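[Automated response] Your request has been received and processed.

Submitted sequence:
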Amino acid sequence: MGFGLLFGIGTLGFRFLQFLVPNRKKRQAEAVLIGAESRIPLNEAVPMDLGGQKIVVLRTAEGIAAFSRRCTDLGCLVSWSKERELFVCPCHQGTFDKTGLNIAGPPPRPLDRLPIVKRGDQLYVNIQSA
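Generated structure:
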């Protein structure tokens, strides 16, 4: 009985320590095809869902960029305002410019930018996989 109690307490303690220590495994970047560059109209943002990760791909005169749609304040999904040429968060009206920089409202940092790789006319975005 004492051995069973000791074993149970040890197992519980081990699981508790696993809960407290964060998982330090590096997440692997994965290139995902998002389509032809010609599919994305100039000065427009195309929202996409890549395996549960919500992103937006924006094409401007400066080039193409991909961002996470999650606002850095509360995680609400930002939308592109073509008229204002800004990303706008519906939660607290936080705004980000076309480079993802936070310019107004409560967001504490810029939108997360995702690297894009161009192979011919095809675009690939690097997303983090588990």
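Summary generated for your ticket: The domain at 26-129 is CATH 2.102.10.10 (Rieske Iron-sulfur Protein). The helical segments are 2-20.
If you did not submit this request, please reply to this message.
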